[in-house]
Amino acid sequence: MNSLSGRFLILTTVFVMLAEVLIFVPSIARFREDFLLNRLERAQIASLALLADDMLAQELEAELLANAGVYNVVLRRDEVRQLMLSSPIPEPIAHTYDLRDAGPWILIKDALSRLFTPENEVIRVIGEPVKDAGLLIEVTIDSMPLRAAMTDYGLRILGLSFVISIITAFFLFLAVRVVLVKPIKSVVGYMQRYAGAPEDARGIISPNSKVTELREAEEALQKLQTELTQALKQRERLAQLGGAVAKVSHDLRNILTSAQLFTDRIETSDDPLVRRMAPKLVNSITRAVSLCESTLAFGRAEEPAPTLTMVPLRDVAEDVVSSEKLAIGDACVEIVNDVPKDLVARADPEQIFRVMMNLVRNAFQALAASGKPGKITITGYAGENDWCIEIKDNGPGLPPKARENLFTPFQGGVRKGGSGLGLAISQELVRGHGGDLVLKETGPEGTTFEFRLPRGDVTF
């Protein structure tokens, strides 16, 4: 009986029996009233014989009283109380019941009292004669036949109630199995099959229940299974991509290492422009080599922790501006470095450079896609508990879809062909410092990203 349908069968039987008990109490009270009224009517009929003939034989009077089931009959007609039929009463009258003005609660109380009183008592019953044959009729009877009839009636009612409850529970049991249990088992079956092969889209449930609640559960399960299947496929693609990126990064690192060896010769060039650009080229190649090494470490699930030093954030922002100006070329986009000269933070300079570069590059791509002149501003300040850097543009703002999956790899990209990795990587790097990267605001007037680095116990 641990099943849903089994428990429902037991509960249904109990509740039907409880309802029958609630019906039983007024029913037994009604039966008692009818029994007593029947005795009054039979006594009235017996008294008619005396009205027809004033002189009755003692044997006939006793027979009439026996047939009526009473000891004596008193009939009041025309304000005169007459003892119509009488016989010796074996014991004093214990109770008197007047059925003329008895309300339902009084009838129920008297019925329960009689039902739970096993001793025989002589009781007086008063009622109204039928057919307006007088003002009242009064009889004296034994209580034992009344209680015996009530007990027999009650047992028959309880037996019938039990049979009704069993039949009702059985049909409800069948209905529950068809309407609820069978669909639930079907959903469980879908879940078990899906758990065996979650990558197989054929295991996803197809909602078909006509019961509103079950259909909602099926639709919720379908959505969950669909998202999980897509996530598993995405995870598999990411694993494959990670392997490919690791291989490419390995070879690219070797190529960049070789290119790094040739930069020393560029620094000895006679061309002033070449000598001036050589350090930037060296820094770019060094960062590219470092990025490849970090990518290989990430592929091995060994992402290195940031190397924290005191970093002038304006210098890092200036390197970002210089690098991105080469990528901007002739585009009408201005990059402004408004980071205070004295703003120094405890951070990893290479990782913070990557964060700023990703945010500035995303802002530039958004402005370039709009086809209008734009401006990107890098600002910063020192708060009481952290250092804050903001990258703001006056572009068109982010679309709703991009905002929903902003920091999700391969889903948060805005431009066509974008991977959406930049923001995900940047957020991970900032969180590695104990801070956070958030979208502060976006709209027709522009977009602002903000990342904060905790000050900790650093003092100046």
TrEMBL record:
<keyword id="KW-0472">Membrane</keyword>
<dbReference type="InterPro" id="IPR036890">
    <property type="entry name" value="HATPase_C_sf"/>
</dbReference>
<dbReference type="InterPro" id="IPR036097">
    <property type="entry name" value="HisK_dim/P_sf"/>
</dbReference>
<feature type="transmembrane region" description="Helical">
    <location>
        <begin position="6"/>
        <end position="29"/>
    </location>
</feature>
<keyword id="KW-0597">Phosphoprotein</keyword>
<keyword id="KW-0175">Coiled coil</keyword>
<dbReference type="Pfam" id="PF02518">
    <property type="entry name" value="HATPase_c"/>
</dbReference>
<dbReference type="Pfam" id="PF00512">
    <property type="entry name" value="HisKA"/>
</dbReference>
<keyword id="KW-0547">Nucleotide-binding</keyword>
<feature type="domain" description="Histidine kinase">
    <location>
        <begin position="247"/>
        <end position="457"/>
    </location>
</feature>
<dbReference type="InterPro" id="IPR003594">
    <property type="entry name" value="HATPase_dom"/>
</dbReference>
<dbReference type="InterPro" id="IPR005467">
    <property type="entry name" value="His_kinase_dom"/>
</dbReference>
<dbReference type="InterPro" id="IPR003661">
    <property type="entry name" value="HisK_dim/P_dom"/>
</dbReference>
<feature type="transmembrane region" description="Helical">
    <location>
        <begin position="153"/>
        <end position="176"/>
    </location>
</feature>
<keyword id="KW-0418">Kinase</keyword>
<dbReference type="InterPro" id="IPR004358">
    <property type="entry name" value="Sig_transdc_His_kin-like_C"/>
</dbReference>
<keyword id="KW-0067">ATP-binding</keyword>
<keyword id="KW-1133">Transmembrane helix</keyword>
<protein>
    <recommendedName>
        <fullName>histidine kinase</fullName>
        <ecNumber>2.7.13.3</ecNumber>
    </recommendedName>
</protein>
<dbReference type="GO" id="GO:0005524">
    <property type="term" value="F:ATP binding"/>
</dbReference>
<keyword id="KW-0812">Transmembrane</keyword>
<dbReference type="GO" id="GO:0000155">
    <property type="term" value="F:phosphorelay sensor kinase activity"/>
</dbReference>
<keyword id="KW-0902">Two-component regulatory system</keyword>
<feature type="coiled-coil region">
    <location>
        <begin position="214"/>
        <end position="241"/>
    </location>
</feature>
<keyword id="KW-0808">Transferase</keyword>
